[in-house]
Amino acid sequence: MQVVARMTRRPVVISPDATLREACNLMTKNAIRHLPVLKDADLVGIITDRDILSVTSHANGAVADLDRPVGNYMTTSVITISPDTYLADAVQLIRKHHIAALPVLSGSRLVGIITEGDVLAALLDVANRNAHLVRMELTIARSPEHFQRLCQIITDRGGRLHRAERHPRAHDKRIDVILEVSSPVVEKLVDAIEDAGFEIDLIVYTG
User: Which band of pLDDT confidence, cut at 50, 70 and 90, is reported for residue 173?
Assistant: First the structure.
């Protein structure tokens, strides 16, 4: 998968002459943490919420500093990528340079931005597409806590519960449970369930 499939197109940008206060307001308004800085359509830097936080964390002069220009605090050596860069390569850049966002350039033109959150969401989507779908049948104690514990194990192990049926037994303190679950590694999920003391009566791969 390439960056173009997951990047934010037409990102919110700011001028180096704008104030830190304006940058902060833009981030808050758009629920973002990074602003590419453009001058005459050219990328000249990037400003982040951490940059602004480093200014406001100083007790003296914080208010005055917020009225200073973004250009005084932005990062000028910006790591960028192209739209056809593979996500795996974007991950390597993010890890290598300890950054959280990469502006995306087509030639010299800014066409998007991709963040570590975008990359993580993409990887999770791939994992979910590769997950196996199974039906499990178990007999557990009637107590709601046991069912909740079972569901928590599935979630903790990266599984996803799609459907659950509970069928109480007459004159019995146990119930029959039918679960439809997806998991990238079914065997590890099964081991975790059984290690917790649950007995799985039947497993059927359905997808």
Answer: confident
